[in-house]
Amino acid sequence: MTVTGRLAPSPTGSLHLGNVRTFLWAWLSARAQGGRVLLRVEDLDTPRVRPGTTAQMIDDLRWLGFDWDGEIEVQTGRREVYRAIFGKLKDRLFPCRCTRGEIAAAASAPHEDEHELRYPGTCRTYRGPAACWRFRADPGVVEFDDRLFGRQAIDVAATIGDFAVAKSPEQPAYQLAVVADDLAQGVTEVVRGDDLIPSTARQILLYRALGAEPPAYAHVPLVVGPDGKRLAKRHGDARLATIRERGIPPERIIGILAGWSGLGSGDATPSCLLPKWAWARAARERLVLTPERLAEFR
């Protein structure tokens, strides 16, 4: 079976060094296995999408030396795919009338520095108009093997409870959209940040409910700021746009990220790193973006 991986950026701001390192690992893993790489723009969190960002992200990825197979997919053009998956899950979903804030939070990928409260099952017997739809999470541990972190065991019902999967059949939340897209595109390997390990358990529940086989998973240790939190707008010097404006060449950027990843030092392109790539070599600790590390890009 041909391995199919994917790069799935969200157009909510400039790519940053943490995004690029994760994309590098995802690209190297698939290509080193002779596999395909797909590019998907995850733009369903429309209030946070910034005009012009999608085109800039695509240009940045090409400039850095990444390539991909087939057409670029954009989530907002895939409403019929989501409606079909919603219909297949309907017996496991129930309408919920809880707060707008909870529903808005479900639109994008959950991260560990955005605390999620356990849903107490308030609307399990509710049958009125839906502010959102939730997946009924039955008790029990979900286990899966992570290529970097080994065996994982998460009880979704105990930690998060029934989780939001859609505002409407055509407007899925993050968890459902990712599963629908990966299934439709034949994705067999998902490489993403380690803050999304809890999401994997939820997505496996959706795969099981659909009678489908989940992909293989590998979660990349995040690049974090000195405050220990994932990179965001507050870490402006880590934005790729800022680094490009300084005239830093792409080979230097990829080379530094390769060094941070355990793949040796020196200027590099993604392609020239393929002979060096192995999950056994990949760094397993989160990397703190200290002022000294940022200075490498000056």
Structure explained in plain terms:
With 298 residues, the chain is an alpha/beta fold. The protein has 2 domains: 4-76 and 221-297, HUPs (Rossmann fold, 3-Layer(aba) Sandwich); 78-220, 3-Layer(aba) Sandwich (Rossmann fold), CATH 3.40.50. Helices cover 32% and strands 17% of the residues. The chain contains 10 helices and 13 strands. The protein has helices at 17-32, 53-64, 79-89, 100-106, 156-159, 174-185, 197-209, 240-245, 250-260, 291-294; strands at residues 4-7, 36-41, 73-74, 93-96, 132-135, 142-146, 150-154, 163-168, 171-172, 189-193, 216-220, 223-224, 287-288. Strands 4-5-8-9 form a 4-stranded antiparallel beta sheet, sandwiched between helices. Strands 1-2-3 form a 3-stranded parallel beta sheet, covered by helices on one side. Strand 1 (4-7), helix 1 (17-32) and strand 2 form a beta-alpha-beta unit. The termini are far apart. The mean pLDDT is 93.
General shape: globular
Beta content:
15-25%
What share of residues is helical?
Answer: 25-40%
Please report the total strand number as a whole number: 13
Number of domains: 2
Compressed to H and E, one letter per element, the order equals EHEHEHEHEEEHEEHEHEEHHEH
Strand order of the largest sheet: 4-5-8-9
CATH superfamily of the largest domain: HUPs
Structural class: alpha/beta
- Rg value: 19 Å
Integer average pLDDT: 93
Largest beta sheet, briefly?
4 strands, antiparallel
First-residue to last-residue Cα separation: 43 Å
Specify the CATH class of the largest domain: Alpha Beta
Q: Segments where pLDDT lies below 50 for 5+ residues?
A: none
**What is the count of DSSP helices, taking H or I runs of 4+ residues?**
10
